[in-house]
Amino acid sequence: MEKFLIVTxxxxxxxxxxxGFLIAIYYKFDLVGVFIASTLTALGGGIxxxxxxxxxxxxxxxxxxxxxxxxxxxIMSTFKIHRIKDIENHFIYVLSDSIGLVAFSIMxxxxxxxxEVNLLxxxxxxxxxxVGGGTIRDVxxxxxxxxxxxxxxAVIAICIGIFFYFxxxxxxxxxxxxxxxxxxxxxIRLLAYYKKWSVPFLH
Length: 203
Fold this sequence. Notes:
The chain is mostly helical. It contains eight helices and no strands. The N and C termini lie far apart (44 Å).
C-alpha cells in the first residue's frame, strides 16, 4: 500500500500546488506569498491528517514533497501559466484542483484503512486530507472555504472514503482498483462542475 500512497501523494501535491499558485497570483501575492500559498494548499491537508492520527507530518520527515512543490512552482513561473485570466473558471485550474481532490481523497482513504478506523473515521480522514489544504488557501484569500458553499467538492471526498471502506476486505485494493476509482471520480467531479450540480441549501 505504501507505493500507492506515494504515487497519489505526488499527484496530489503537484495538482494542489498548481491550484495554490494560480490563486495566489490571481490575488496578487508576492513571491514569498505565492510559495507559501502553494505549499499550504499542497501539504495542509496531510499535515492536519497526520496530526489527527498522532504522527509527525509526512511532509516534515520526507524531502520529496518540498522538492515537488519547488519544481512545480518553477515550471509554472517559467511557462507564465499565471497570466491566464479568469483563473478560477479556467480549465487548467479546475482540472488541477479536481485531480488534487481525487488523489488526496484516495490517499486519505488508504491511510484510514491502514489505521483501521471505523466508517466515521474513514470519512473524516479522507475529507481532511482532500480539503484541508484548499481550506487553508481559501482562508488566506479571505474566502469561505470552497467545499462549504457550493459544488460537489466535499461529496466526492466523502464518497471515495465510503467506497474504500466498504470494498476493503472484499476486493484487493491494487493499482487497477485505484486507477478505476481515480478516473471515475475525476469524471464525476468535472461533470458536476460543468453541469453546476450542487448540494441543496437549507432555506
